[in-house]
Design a protein that fits this description.
Layout (H helix, E strand, L loop, with lengths): L5 E6 L4 H13 L3 E4 L8 H13 L5 E6 L3 H7 L7 E3 L3 H9 L5 E5 L5 H13 L22
Helix pairs in contact: 1-5, 2-3, 4-5
């Protein structure tokens, strides 16, 4: 884990206040923050794609997206090849998003959680690193299927 990151930050109109608080929090901790939020007439998919592409190109190591629920941003960002974005509703999910899934983008919902809780989750996500690939055997249907043939 490195101490500071180049972080892209993006939000739609529903999440400007949370985004601003997160930007201040990240800057205070020494991260380089670039705000790529919505311009006039843009909706969350435009923001999510712009931010995700900046991570995919290597301009930023990590990113944070904020909208009303975080769901739409995560879906839109995950459409960019090579990107893993995770909706972060709690600190356990934040940690697992990094450790298990190597998510480069954390997505938060401004209407589904308070700012203080979001900052705790953001910190858990920032300090967690990918634990490495875990190999599991593929699930196979047993020879005794429950389906009628």
């Amino acid at each position: 884990m490195q101490d500071t990151y180049r972080i892209a930050l993006g939000a739609d109109d529903a999440a400007t206040a949370m985004k601003d608080t997160m930007a201040a929090y990240l800057t205070e901790r020494g991260h380089q923050v670039t705000d790529l939020s919505a311009a006039d007439g843009e909706d969350y998919p435009d923001v999510a794609e712009r931010v995700a592409r900046s991570v995919a190109r290597g301009e930023h190591e990590r990113a944070v997206l904020v909208c009303g629920t975080g769901i739409g941003m995560a879906i839109a960002a995950n459409k960019v090849p090579g990107i893993r974005a995770a909706q972060i509703p709690d600190s356990y999910s934040a940690e697992r998003a990094r450790k298990s899934n190597d998510a480069q983008i954390a997505c938060f919902g401004s209407r589904t959680m308070g700012v203080e809780a979001a900052l705790v989750c953001l910190e858990h996500w920032l300090v967690s690193d990918f634990a490495g690939a875990v190999r599991r055997p593929r699930w196979r249907r047993s020879s005794r299927s429950s389906r009628a043939t």
